[in-house]
Amino acid sequence: MEIRTITAPFTDEVLSSLKVGDIVNVSGTIFCGRDAVLPKLVKKIENGTFDETGIDLKGGVIFHTAVSRAGVGPTSSNKAELEGTMPQLTKAGIRMFLGKGELKDETIQMFNEYNAVYAVIAPVTALLNSKVLSQKCLAYPELGMEAFYELQVDKFPCIIAAAHGERLS
């Protein structure tokens, strides 16, 4: 099986070409957030103040993880605090979510509406940490490792788990 390298932020053409089961390496800019920070960002989106952050989510990727000295590794994307943020973040421009766990059917159908995808990453912190070129805290630094981070990555390995209304079975 061919492993493709795709670079974020993504175009609609790249996203349309992805199929469930594809193995891809993600390069470029990805955002990191989990339970403590993503609901805060969604509140800003809902109350119309997100633009004040200066963060551009268009075509972006959110990796459900914390950023610490120990590295990065996926957390469960199907936790209510995370999966519940996906509709608003997708409407705001996010086109790929990275994490682990099975998502609800309605979430997968919502991705189809926006040409968005979900990819799973095996919990291999040492490998992922070796793919991080740089990291920068963008918002909520008081949350420490659960703040909203931006990473520059090179060939982050993942498997497309949901796309175009379909899922891995």
Any overview of this molecule?
The model has no long low-confidence stretch (mean pLDDT 94). The chain has 6 helices and 8 strands. It has 169 residues and is of the alpha/beta class. The protein is globular. The two termini are 18 Å apart. The protein has a 5-stranded mixed barrel. The longest helix has 10 residues. It has a single domain, classed as Fe-S hydro-lyase, tartrate dehydratase beta-type, catalytic domain (fumarase, Alpha-Beta Barrel), CATH 3.20.130.10.
Taken as a percent bin, the fraction of beta residues is: 25-35%
Q: Which fold name corresponds to the CATH topology?
A: fumarase
Spatial order of the strands in the main sheet? 2-3-4-5-7
- How many alpha or pi helices? 6
Into which percent range does the helicity of residues fall? 10-25%
Quick one: CATH superfamily? Answer: Fe-S hydro-lyase, tartrate dehydratase beta-type, catalytic domain
Terminal Cα separation, in Å?
18 Å
* Proper CATH architecture: Alpha-Beta Barrel
Structural class call reads alpha/beta
Query: In terms of per-residue confidence, which ranges show pLDDT below 50 for 5 or more consecutive residues?
Result: none
- Shape descriptor reads globular
Supply Rg: 14 Å
Biggest sheet details: 5 strands, mixed, barrel
Secondary-structure element pattern, one letter each: EHEHEHHEHEHEEE
| Structural domain count | 1
What oligomeric state do these chains adopt?
A: single chain
Q: Would you summarize the structure shown here?
A:
The protein contains six helices and eight strands. By secondary structure, it is of the alpha/beta class.
